[in-house]
Each structure stands twice: as C-alpha cells, then as structure tokens.
Amino acid sequence: MTQTAPVTPSSSQALDEIKIGGLGSSRLRVEDSRFIRGRGNYTDDVKLPGMLYMEILRSPLAHARIISIDTSRAWAIPGVRLVLTGEMMAQRNLAWMPTLSYDTQAVLATDKVRFQGQEVCVVVADDPYIAKDGCEAIDVEYEPLPPIVNPEQSAAPGAPVIRDDKQGQVDNTCYRWEVGDREATERAFAEADVVSKLKLHYPRSHPSPIECCGSVADFDPATKKLTVYMTSQAPHIVRSAVALIAELPEHMIRIVSPDVGGGFGNKVPVYPGYVHSILASILLGKPVKWTEDKTGNLISTGFGRDMYLDGEMALRSDGKILAVRMHADTDQGAFFADAQPSKFKIGLMHSTFACYNIGTGYITAQGHYTNKAPGGVAYRCSFRVTEAMFFQERMVQAAADDLGIDQAEFRRVNLLPDDAFPARTPFGFLVDSGQYDKCLQIGLDAIGYEEFRREQAAARAKGRLLGIGISTMTEPLGAGNSREYDILGIKMFDSAELRVHLTGKAILRTGAKTQGQGHETTWAQIVSHELGIPAADVVVEEGDTDTAPYGMGTYASRSTPVAGAAVSMVSRKIRAKARKIAAHLLEVSEEDIEWELGRFFVRGAPERGATIQECAMAAYSNMPDGMEPGLEGNAYYDPPNLTWPFACYIVTVEVDPETGVWDVLRVVAVDDCGVRINPMIVEGQIMGGLTEAYAMSNMQFQTYDAEGNIVGSNYMDYLIPTAWETPGFELHEVVTPCPHHPIGAKGVGECAAVGGPAAFVNAVLDAIAHTGVRNIDMPVLPDRVWTALQTHQDVSGAPPVRNG
Amino acid sequence: MSYGRSVEVVETAENVRRITITVNGERRVVEVEPRLLLAHLMREGLGLTGTHFGCDTTNCGACTVLFDGEPIKSCTMLAVQADGHEVTSVEGLGTHSELDPVQEGFQAEHGLQCGFCTPGMMMASKALLNRNASPTEEDVRWALSGNLCRCTGYQNIVKAVLWAADKQRLSGPAAAGDTSSEEHVS
C-alpha cells in the first residue's frame, strides 16, 4: 500500500507521481477515516430540531380496487401530526408523478392498488413508533382484482388492464422497441449451417444496498426554501424533478445527498416516499424524516432485470457467427419506472454481442405491465447491459455446444481482433478499443484450461461433476454523449469545479455522487496527476446541489468516464492559467515555458522553475497586469463516445450429483478497464461485482406467487451471500487505454456484475453437460439442478413460483 | 420523545422504564419505552449514530454491538433488556487519538467501500479477536457470516481482520486470547 507522504514542493525538480498520490497510486481512502470511527453522515443520521417522523402504509394486495379509507383512528392517536391519503394528494395534483421513463407513477394510491407494497397512506408523528401505530390504525377496504405476475399473463387476451388510469391504454403493453436489420438477418439465417436457440429468464433481482432509502425534508416557511437530505445517486436530477413536479422554484430547492450506504442503481429514481416527506414538511412547516425499512425497500423500490429472452444464432459449421436474432420481453411491474436514457426503451440491450463480429442482427423488445413493483433500474450496470451480456454469453456457450466446438475456441474465432477498432456494431455502437484475445488467453492460462479439462474427465469417470464456464464481454460505460443520451431531456454530461487556494491547497466539487466508489480519494489523484498538487492537499465534495456543479450523478459506471474526465479538463484549464503566471514569475514569454509534474520551467534552463504552489500564491498576490485574480475554474464534459472495458471471467465448479448443490472451486477475472486511477480501489470494485455475480447465479432473486405475493421481501427470504459462501477471487489485468478519455480510463465498477453471472451458470451447465440440459434459469438453486439431473429437462424459474 | 433521552414525555410517561446501562465505558441512566429497540436508543437517545439499521431482522449485522463483550444485533434487542449490562459500539473502539488495530486494518486493506456495514463488521471482528488472537481465514469468514456487505466481496474484509490480528499480536500484550482454530458447523 502506498501512503501519501508529505511532499515539500521544490521549484527545481519534478515530483514522483506515486509519492504524491497521483495516477496509479494505491492511495488509501480518505473517506475511511470517518467511516471506521462510526462518524459517517448518512441520511438517517441527520437530525434537525423539531423533526417529525414519517411512516408509509402499504398495500397487502397486488391488485385491488380501493373501496374506502378510514383514517379517523390514526388521527386520534396522541403524537400523530398528519395523515395523508391519495385523495388529499389528488387535491394538490400530486397523486401521480412522472417517472424517469415518461410514464406516471402513483404517489399515493387513489383508484386501485397495482402491486403488493404500493404506498396507500402516510402518517407523520412525533416519533417513528407512533407513526407506525398510526399506520396500523388506518382501515382500508379493498375489492380484490385478478393479479398478473408475468408477461405471458399480461399479454393474454382478456387480461385485466392494469393501467386503466391511462387514457388510450387498452392492454398491458408498456412499450415496443426494435433495432437492427431484419431482412439481412433473415437472409443470414437462411444461409446458416446451424441455428442455435435458447430461451431463458433473467430473474427479478433487487440491488438492495444495506442502507435503505430515506429523506429528511426541511421546508422553511420563512424563507420558502426547501432542503432535502436524501439517499440519492443523482441529486441534481432530483432538484430539477422536484422543481418540475412540485412547481417550486429551482433556486429555492437544495438537495443534499450525504454519505450513501450503497446504491447499485437503487437510489437513482425519485420514489413516492421522498415526495411524501417533502409535502408533509411543506404542510407542517417542520422537518420530516422518512426512513424506509428493509421490506419497504425490497418490495417497492427499483428492482433490476426480470427479462425473458428468445435468442437465436445463425452459425456456419466452421464456427463463424453469421447473425443474431433476439426477442426480449420485460416485466416492468405496475409503472414504467426504468431509470435509463430516454431514447432506449430497453436500455442498452442492443450492446449485446458488441465484442464479437456477428455480421448482422435484429432485436425486438416488448415491455409488459404486471402487478409487481415498478422499476427496471440499472442495477450495477449500464442500463440493461447485464441482461444483454448474460444472454450473449449463455447463447455463445449453447452455440459452441451445438457446433461441437470448444467454448474458448468458439470465442477466439468470433471475438473482434485487435486491429478492428474503432468497430461499428450492427446495432449502431462504436466500440473504442480492446485486446480481447490477450485477455482471454491470460484467463485460460491462469485457470489452467487444458489441465482442468483433463481433471474434469478423470473426475467424471469417478462420478464427480466438475464444470468450467467462461464469460467474455465488453460493455458501454459512461453515458453519454449528449447527442444520444438524456434523462428527462437533460443531456448526460458531467462536471467539475476546482478552486486552488492561495497556499496551493484545493477544493474540488463534481456533479457525480460517490456511494462507496471512493471519489474523495480518486478525484484528488486525477488533480494530482494533472497539476502535481499532492492528492492529500485536495479535498473533494459532492452531493450538495447548492455548491456542486450540475451533473447527472453516479450510476452506470459513468463517474470515471464522464465526471472523472471533467476533473482532468478543469485541472488542465487551471494549468493553462498557471502557465501564464509562471511566465510572469520567471520573466520569460509563455512559449518558453515547459511543464513537468508539479512545476513549470524555462525551456533550456530547467533549474529555473516555478511550482504550481508558487503559481497559486501569485494568482492571489502577484498576478501579471491585466490578469483576473484567482486560480479556479469549472469544466462540463460531454464525452465523444462511451468507454468500452473488456473482461474475461472464468469459473470452475463442482456439482454434487446427490443434492444439486454446487461449490465454486476457482474464479479468475481478467479486467481491461484502461488506465487505473487507483489499482486498490479498482480491484475492490471488481471483487464487489464478482460477489454480486455469484449472488445472482446462486441464490439472490425475487419472485411472486400466483396471488402476487412477493417472495424475497426481507433478508430471511432474499438471500445475499455472506463471507462464508463467497468464493475467493483471482484478479488479472490488461491495460488498453481508452483512446478518447483524457487519462485513458474506462468505467469498471460494474463489469464483474455484468459479465460474471454467465461464467457461473455456464460452469454449472458444463458440469452437467451429459444430461443434455441447455438451460437452468438463475439462480441456479440446488433444487433446480437436482430437477435437471433427474429429468434431463431445462428448468424454468419464471413466476409464479409454486406454492408449497 | 420516546427515544430515552428525557423524561418530558407526557402521553407515554406511565409506560416508561428507567434503566442503567454502561455504554462505551460510561454509565448512563435513561428512561425508555419498553418497546424501544436498543439500536434506536443508541442512535437517537444517546446520539451514537455509528450503529446502523440495515435489515430490521437480525440478518445483516449493521447494528452489531458488543453486549457484555459478545457481538449481538441491537436491532432486535429491546433497550430494557440491556438494563444493567455493558454495551460497546464502534464509537468505543479505539480512542480519540489512537485507532484500534481493527479500524486500522479495515483502512489499510481497503475493507470498506460505502462504509455502512463497517461499524457492525468491525465489532464482530473485534469480538473474534478478543477470543482468538490468531484466527485463520476460515475462522474470520465464519465469525463474520452474520454480517452482510454488498460492496467489497469480503476478501479485503478478511484481509483486514488478519492484518489487525497480526498487528495486535506484534504490539499487544503477550497474553492475548486462545490461539487454537475454531470449530465450524457448515
């Protein structure tokens, strides 16, 4: 580990970048200092004078008409200050709110409840216990309606229309979308030697950060200013959304996202609970705190996945892919609340097969309303790329099997070669760079592929079932470029603002919002790289919309590609001004000034120099005539393209033929995310992602029974791996610098969660290849494996779950 | 307020119990409603917000504190059950000027990301090291299996605890704990 040592600036010598905590330094995290002392400041830690507490009453039924709501017993409880119903919201035109996908969502139910856990009433009281008492005392009479829990039921003739609140909505179709070349794809399929087909379901999963959602809304009746402390990955989007929804002037809204206890996409949308707390604070003139409980979080806030695939590949007998055809059905729940760029109704699903040369392709997609929680958030991924890459790598495995070609060889034949870049995909992306063969080979060598195959055969002879699974993928990270990517019309740029103080210390603010990624540490490293200011001399702040520049927040691995680039660019602006100051101090013309880390010097006379700190001092005390004082600036960065990291994940497993239980033997990860700002943090992100991949393949999912009851509504049902089950990880790296990012970095935080699941599932299916089973839906639970071993049939995991 | 901070409560005054509890070495007398959870008393009544609510069902361990030296989940224990007992929270690890080796280890080995599970994770780690000064990787994984982390994948948390054990052994009193490996049931 590299500790940042105090550095004495010297005007005669360049600095050692690693020593000052610059690019490539595994600098220990500055934010840890407060977290390890229990001095983090999360939303639930915010306590304001006179604060009241809010609780939400949720629907026990998945689909029902509301006959009546009687709140009189709740109002009678001492300490209850406010009870809100949908009717009261409707009187203020706030019963419905827009989602991030141009749909509407009920803030409090008025006509019907449309999923189990939907918000029906709100109670505000002197403490949360009394607020809960208040919820218990509300009497709601429901008339049950038939629940719909999957796309098949949703699209069936005569199915009840869930969204009868929407004019012109005659069925349960949420959207239709298509991309690619249908005719060329059909021609390719007609010429194929082999057509490989696969049907599968990527189960509903919940990002489930350990910290649930919450807010403290504080409307000041005197100044009319609204301050909201809240668990948000994107505080500026929230400010604009509140301005638009609640019709409050935007300059009188301050959103503060303090420390966030994990996000993973769950904390991007605007949830009804936030809106309730805001309205309650406005009505009562007091701060109102909402702290969601785990069940509330799991059953009502943004889930991920829940997508069904019909995939086909047209193949030539020598292993070449000729075309890919896919149809995806997404289960959106009751409201279309995906948090994704406006133009793309199924996220970046069409980034599928971006690492392969597939000739041509055609994708269709349909969204379905169901009586399930709304969402479809980018759960640790760049808008549905997790499904895209999982389907891709499961189809690749099936295709290799169908052709009788080794899975590694099949990939080698079809992966883009190093000289292919920039490579246009059949679905319109431009993949920037990569060394795919090299990554694959490092992975195969690390796992000992050939040797494992021999071991596997020997074990098979003794009745033991070993398997090896590979997943290779590139994914588009860092939305967006503003031509193609926007959320609610706001372009997906990001921003940074840097102020260098008189003594050469600095404060940096960005439009991103860290939730564990370590921005307070890594952004300072970028400044250090660009300016030679030691990272320890740069403090980083994010999350307060009154002080931070406008940005789109942190999700979809966009921080380093977009905000990180803005940090570079603002630092370069500062350096350009400092160069003029250096010329003034050294009494030469600017053209004669050279830069090396931490100092300017006179060309041809390197001993004559001025440090960046000396320039900072001069910016306030000795600037040249006519120069504006100060050394600060900002930068808004609109990326020219997405960044395209590549990864190869290889997993070996052993399946117990008696029980269907499978154990992970080894996990090898080869990640190429370009230049690594802080290798320690990058590796931490990869291991976190691999754990989520393991979780999704092995245990973690949400499903529904035929009545619309959710299974996976608390941590007793919603299984998350502990330290005991989680396997160890072996990490390797390749560095292909991103050609269009200022420091050559690519996104990385989500790669392993995106590419990892297929490696685990492919490994289990490889272990039971003798059964001829093509698919077991995730999570690959022991009973599903056991069923496959017994029946030699594919095993579906689609809801409704069987009772008993 | 029923958070055990004052005796001003009017409506619920008849339903209040006076308890004595030693928190991080300091004796505290508080009045609480019988239904008040220990974690709420810690966070709201005593202002010790390092103890976090994660799951409400004893699964995630973000609320782990030491109760007479043993790790417990304070989200499912009532404050009144702590009457006459000693509770140590993350705020009681280390001192103002000096960190506990567990805290140092978590930073040195990048054993945390968002930091939300960290206090509970460190308290469970501390309890392990108190009874076993030389744990194996397996010992650590078992001891932390009641604490969930969504960020790290645990590998660095395990390293952090082993780092702390090394540091404690090298610098601490020679008599620390039993060194034998623990029994696990899996």
Automatic annotation (TrEMBL), chain B:
Signal peptide: none
PANTHER family: OXIDOREDUCTASE WITH IRON-SULFUR SUBUNIT
Domain 2Fe-2S ferredoxin-type: from-to ranges: 17-93
InterPro entries listed in its UniProt record: 2Fe-2S-bd, 2Fe-2S-bd_dom_sf, 2Fe-2S_ferredoxin-like_sf, 2Fe-2S_ferredoxin-type, Beta-grasp_dom_sf, Diverse_Oxidoreductases
An example molecular function term from Gene Ontology annotations: oxidoreductase activity
Keyword ATP-binding among UniProt keywords: no
Biochemical pathway: Alkaloid degradation; nicotine degradation
Keywords: 2Fe-2S, Iron, Iron-sulfur, Metal-binding, Oxidoreductase
Protein's recorded name: (2Fe-2S)-binding protein
Pfam families for this protein: Fer2, Fer2_2
UniProt source species: Pseudonocardia hydrocarbonoxydans
Keyword Iron: yes
Top-rank taxon: Bacteria
